[in-house]
Specification:
Keywords: Glycosidase, Hydrolase, Signal. One of its GO terms (molecular function) is hydrolase activity, hydrolyzing O-glycosyl compounds. This is (Trans)glycosidase. The chain is α/β, with parallel strands linked by helices and about 425 residues long. The chain has one domain: TIM Barrel. It has 15 helices and twelve strands. The strands form three sheets. It has an eight-stranded parallel β-barrel, surrounded by five helices. Strands 1-2 form a two-stranded antiparallel ribbon. A two-stranded antiparallel ribbon has the order 11-12. It is globular. The relative contact order is 0.14. Bound molecules: 2-acetamido-2-deoxy-beta-D-glucopyranose (4 copies). The site of one 2-acetamido-2-deoxy-beta-D-glucopyranose has 4 residues, from loops.
Length: about 425
């Protein structure tokens, strides 16, 4: 289904969308392209994505927190921390349901289904109170549309991330979403869902990039599928998925995540044999200036910085280093997830200070996990409290001011002097 058939409501009432200027003439000065290890806009400035994750892939399939805060407030607060991008996560199930029903599901129906009639009704009422532009006809995708429209107003880039297939908390090796062909990871539906969102996102000027799949990992409880857990299978699936996204929306940067929960892209950067002679060569892509690598790091208990950075370099950050003779594919690398408990003093510890100096030194982008202080529901618990969040439980204030300030300062350091590089 094309986006035009599900889009009209949110956009009909949005002044922003109606007056979309020629993309090159205004922010975000897209489409963005890569140039060696850098990402550039149409003004030839370096764009370094520095931001935060905003999950929308949970059971309700609606960006989290909107029963507590307006879209406008969430983005304003994000912006106040010097952050320039949101990683907006979605599940393939949302698109599967659009195809099977012939229409997107309303927010109301979705809350009731995810939270039960009593709690779903109560949460939906709060959602409308905080976000009165919506009503009973508003669908889930129209909420994503509204986030993207507000992001444009506030000049915050949007990065779409396919986080999982079945809408639920991610990620485990036994959750059925681990690897291509796993119980809930239908490859054809995944590719269809990616292309759908890429196409739909053409109506979102703030959308600059899309991540193909969050944290590929071994499906250890699935003997048939775990046999195929290797780089060659990764390549065979990721390349056609990327081709589909590029065909649907040639403007997007496409992010590739690696094995072991996206902690390594080692054979991609060095152009090693992935199996049967398959090799990742940037030059093989007709859209080679659209490829970006993404890595995650959660070594929160590290006691020394080199124990983090040595692994990062060999795991994929070497792609930033054109003078390293082992590196065959020079590409931008963005740490699309890292994070820790924000309710205590962890922000002062080895882990954050190390990433701060390493990524700041490299001038490499990152996205903190995550913005919201609670989930509609997570792992069977409604209104689940998230201590690894910028916001407190009810999204009214920072969870701890000093933790949030440290993110603001880190963003400032990463971004310092980058535009003119
Ligand atoms: C799909 O949604 C639109 C807009 O909300 C509505 O007008 C239409 O009747 C719906 N179609 C179906 C098949 O439910
Ligand atoms: C509904 O919400 C209440 C708190 O408002 C909570 O105690 C209860 O567990 C929720 N119901 C379900 C089914 O999760
Ligand atoms: C994947 O998991 C299976 C089942 O536990 C295991 O036998 C296999 O060695 C794992 N593959 C890799 C590459 O770790
Ligand atoms: C890049 O690679 C060169 C050659 O191996 C090495 O000397 C240099 O330290 C590397 N730079 C970084 C920032 O790692």
């Amino acid at each position: 289904m094309r986006f035009s058939s599900v889009l009209p409501l949110a956009f009909a009432c949005s002044a922003v969308a109606v007056v979309i200027p020629s993309p090159k003439a205004a922010w975000p000065y897209g489409p963005l392209v890569t140039d060696g290890r850098w990402i550039r806009n149409t003004k030839n400035e370096v764009v370094t994505p520095v931001g935060v994750n905003w999950p929308g892939h949970g059971e309700a399939m609606i960006p989290e927190g909107l029963q507590y805060a307006s879209i406008n407030k969430v983005l304003k607060d994000i912006k106040s921390l010097n952050l320039n991008i949101i990683r907006l996560t979605f599940s393939i199930q949302m698109i599967d349901e659009i195809y099977s029903k012939g229409n997107d599901t309303t927010v109301k129906e979705s809350f009731l289904k995810a939270l039960g009639t009593t709690n779903g009704t109560a949460i939906y009422k709060k959602f409308l109170q905080k976000n009165p532009q919506f009503d009973d006809t508003t669908t889930r995708l129209q909420v994503f549309d509204a986030v993207a429209a507000e992001a444009l107003k506030q000049e915050i880039y949007v990065h779409l991330d396919n986080h999982i297939s079945r809408a639920e908390w991610c990620c485990g090796e036994t959750d059925g979403n681990a690897w291509f062909g796993d119980t809930y990871f239908n490859v054809a539906n995944w590719k269809r869902g990616l292309a759908y969102m890429a196409d739909h996102g053409k109506a979102w000027p703030a959308l600059v990039s899309l991540g193909l799949r969050n944290e590929p990992r071994n499906a250890t409880n699935n003997p048939t599928i775990s046999k195929t857990y290797n780089w060659e299978t990764w390549y065979k699936n990721m390349i056609p998925a990327a081709n589909g996204v590029n065909a649907a929306n040639p403007g997007l940067l496409i992010y590739f995540s690696g094995l072991n929960y996206d902690t390594t892209l080692a054979p991609i950067t060095t152009g090693a044999n992935l199996g049967s002679g398959t090799v990742f060569r940037k030059s093989d892509f007709p859209y080679s200036n659209k490829l970006v690598l993404e890595l995650h790091n959660y070594q929160t208990t590290a006691t020394t910085c080199p124990s983090i950075t040595n692994g990062l370099y060999n795991g994929g950050y070497n792609a930033l280093n054109a003078t390293d003779p082992k590196v065959k594919n020079v590409l931008p690398v963005v740490m699309t997830e890292w994070g820790h408990d924000m309710s205590n003093n962890e922000y002062k510890g080895v882990y954050q200070t190390c990433l701060d100096s390493y990524l700041g030194g490299l001038k490499a982008g990152w996205m903190f996990w995550e913005v919201g202080g609670s989930y509609y529901t997570r792992q069977g618990k409604q209104d689940f409290d998230e201590t690894w969040a910028l916001f407190n439980h009810d999204w009214t204030n920072w969870r701890q001011k000093a933790s949030a300030e440290s993110i603001k300062e880190m963003a400032k350091r990463t971004l310092a002097g980058t535009k003119k590089l």
